[in-house]
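Narrative of activities, Objective 1.

The group set out to show that a structural description can be obtained from nothing but a protein's sequence at a throughput compatible with the screening campaign. Below is one input-output pair from the validation batch, recorded exactly as produced.
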Amino acid sequence: MSDNHSANSTLRRRRINSQTTKESSDQNASVADIELPPQKSLLIAYLLYFCGGFCGLHHLYLGRDNHAILWCTTFGGLIAGVVRDFWRLPEYVKEANRDAFLLERHGINQRENTRPSSWAMLFALFQLPRIYRQVVLNLYPRNDEEGTVDPWFVAWTLTCGSLAVAWAITWVSKMSFCWNSSFKWALLGATIGELINVWKYLSVSDGTAPVERDLVDGTYCILVAIFAAYRSRSYVPVEEHYAQRKKQRQTQSLCRRITKVIACVGIFYLLLGTAVYQNGVITTEDNSQVRIRDRVKQILNSPAWAQLQTECGIAANVWMSQGYDEFRRHVMNRLDINGEQRALVDLGLSDNATTSEIRASANALRKLYHPDRCTLPADECVRKFQSVQHAFEVLTRKPRE
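Output recorded for this entry:
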């Protein structure tokens, strides 16, 4: 009986081992069915990291286009992402090369861990929506005047601010490994958070009037949106995740990927430039703050801008009528690179002044502005005397007709 029992237990163990071996072989076969891409080099990845890490060149090389866009728009993930990539780059290369051990480890983590996340992802979920929300809100020209409430800015915050936060959170979740969130739930959470923010903005408890810049703080919006996105999360199996990447790799060439990255980065910086123009502030000499858009309007209405437009029109007419050589000569003359035009103005002479006229005018002005004879303040006499001397030296460097 004991011999039969031991034999049965041995057969049972062999049957279990054979089933386990079959299951593992099936899993390996499913992973092997995924067509491996061209193998990426760790050396090239590190070279691109050191040459253009803040631009995400190493991510673009490894097929992580979304990470490349993120790095370009946030200066390397606010520098922290670039520092983290230094020791994470070998794992990124293995992931790009579809390393079997790495895929198996990701699959085990996905099955055993119900909350696959990291501190880097948590940092991105808080900072990226805040950055994009700030850019979108600053597209609206604000006043920041106490006692004024702009209903259009409140509406802009509720709509565009919520969309920016929901899109950023959804985008970050899709960049994580096999973890997706619902855009609709993220948008719902962002809208609820914006409503809380607007309610707090309109009901100021300390008796002071609300200021529009207080509405820019989007902490409530981001927190509620992250909570809603986390509750609506869904997990993508490892095989399906890489099958989707395979499909994208087959349909998108390298040129198309680079074009997409450049277009996305260009759109972001176009929006950023517009936001800076609308609500950027510069400090003048008297320590007063002026909006950039107001200063640009002042420049466009200034005589200097009108003179520049006139000069450009004259230069265009010279090019159309006399050709490129005369146009280049005219532009170089008007730019006054050698300072001759300025020197002629300081001496009170015309463009065709001769050497004798230059010497006579310089001698007369030297006597007029000499510190021992000049009746003007001492500083102004010295400045005018030095300008006359400099103008004479500039005009006598080469012989004139």
